Structures are given as C-alpha cells and as structure tokens.
C-alpha cells in the first residue's frame, strides 16, 4: 500500500493498526512530537474546507512536520499544466501529497506520477480519512467493530461509500437508509459487497427507517453535497423523514450519533440530539479526524504498509 485513495487498498489488520495508532497519537501526543521532523507535506484544496484543512495543518505541526497549503486560485489541477507535470514537480520537493479534489480521476493521476504517498482527503466518490476517523470514534465505545451495527441516513454519497468500505473490511453491519433516487453508487456498492462476502460483513441499502431498529450507531450528513447548488429547502420534503432526532433514537433504540459536518441544525439533525453528550459523538468524531490522519501520514511515509 503506497497511497490511500479509496480505503479498499487496506486489509482488515491494516485498518485495525491505523485505528490503534490513531488512539495512541491521541493519548500520547508528546511521543510523536518529532515523528515528521524535517518532512514537508503538500495539502491541495480544490474544495473549501474547515475540518479537513485545519486537522491536517495542525496535525502535521504536532508531529514536527511542515504543511504547504495550495488552493485553487491558479485554477483546477490539470488546467494550468497537466496533472502529470504537477505531480512530477511536487514529488521533487514534498514527502507526501494530501489532496481534496473534485474528481477521483485527479487523485489516480497524481498517484500514477508521484513517488511519494498520495492521500485522498475527499473527492466525488470517496472520503477515506473520514470513514477511518468514524470507525476510530466507534472503536472508542465498542470493543469489537465486527459486531457493530451502523446506520447511515440521508443522501448516498462519498461518505456513505467510505463507511461501506471500512465497515466491509472490518466485518461490520452497515446499512444506508436513503430516499428513493438518492442511493449510493451501484458500482461501488457491488465492489463493497464483494469485500463483505470475504469478511462476513453485512452491507445493505434501504429506504425504510424501520430496517435499522436495534442498531448501535446512526450517522448523518448534509442533504446536499458540497458543490451541489441545490438549495436545502428544495430537498427538505424529500429528506425530512430521514432527520436524526429524538424520535428516531427512541424508535430504534440507537445509542450513539455521528455526523461528519457541516450539520444543518433542525434539518439533517436536531440541536437536541447534536448537543446531547450522552448520545452525540459528533465533536469527538471531528477531533479524531486529526488523529487518524496523522496515523495515515505516519504509516505511509514510514512505508509500514
């Protein structure tokens, strides 16, 4: 494993090792204060960001490394110069490339022409750093991830795909509850089902909230993905039955709530649930983005995979 582009590159043991390293980075930050000393990481952002940019920038600093931020002021990657030339230049200077891009094809081309690790920090199809942070957060409350039942509710998107991938690798039960017409990508779903067939995981897509009764964790996301200009109010009627609220928790018996944020309070999730520290793991989940990303960078840059 030279790069992290989809999450499918990792084995079950590698995912577990990343989660355990993330936990250790969180518990013992001083132990890793010089882990990336003398290393420079380029962070590329074609899309706006709060959590991804801040967690990578501060996380790299906490390990003694240097983050170089590149935005899209010079145009999308591949417009001013080819992706091949872009990657070939960066790899002469940088020790790692982290990219938040519009298209997964850009990441594939960056990796093809890079001789340093490339990490997908979000694209149109996958969000592997988020998915790994999510399961690290779950692992802080559930000892055996293979027995966890996780329900994603809302629009099937890149986050859904990554939850499916990590859950399938770990052997967990993951169900996406989506309105008709908003299901995850069928091709990615087929690939995940193949992984699940080997691991013993259960992967399902449904449009009925009744199918997640007895689950452990429910997961929400914004109803309109970044880059989609559709007003939230325009999809309110379609998605409101999938809102995460107290009634959903009471009806299903679900004990914990995740949300990758940004959250639109009183739409995809109520403030009552989001701010309830007895059930909401949302802000610890956001913190864990930094710890798992540090684990990913450290592992790939050391060549431990």
UniProtKB/TrEMBL annotation:
Enzyme type, top EC level: transferase
GO molecular function: ornithine carbamoyltransferase activity
InterPro entries, alphabetized: Asp/Orn_carbamoyltranf_P-bd, Asp/Orn_carbamoylTrfase, Asp/Orn_carbamoylTrfase_sf, Asp_carbamoyltransf_Asp/Orn-bd, Orn/put_carbamltrans
Domain Aspartate/ornithine carbamoyltransferase Asp/Orn-binding: 147-299
Keywords: Transferase
EC id: 2.1.3.3
UniProt cross-references to SUPFAM superfamilies, sorted A to Z: Aspartate/ornithine carbamoyltransferase (SSF53671)
Domain Aspartate/ornithine carbamoyltransferase carbamoyl-P binding: 3-140
NCBIfam families: orni_carb_tr, PRK00779.1, PRK14805.1
Family to which the UniProt record says this protein belongs: Belongs to the aspartate/ornithine carbamoyltransferase superfamily.
Stated name of the protein: Ornithine carbamoyltransferase
Native source organism of the sequence: Motilimonas cestriensis
Taxonomic placement: Bacteria, Pseudomonadati, Pseudomonadota, Gammaproteobacteria, Alteromonadales
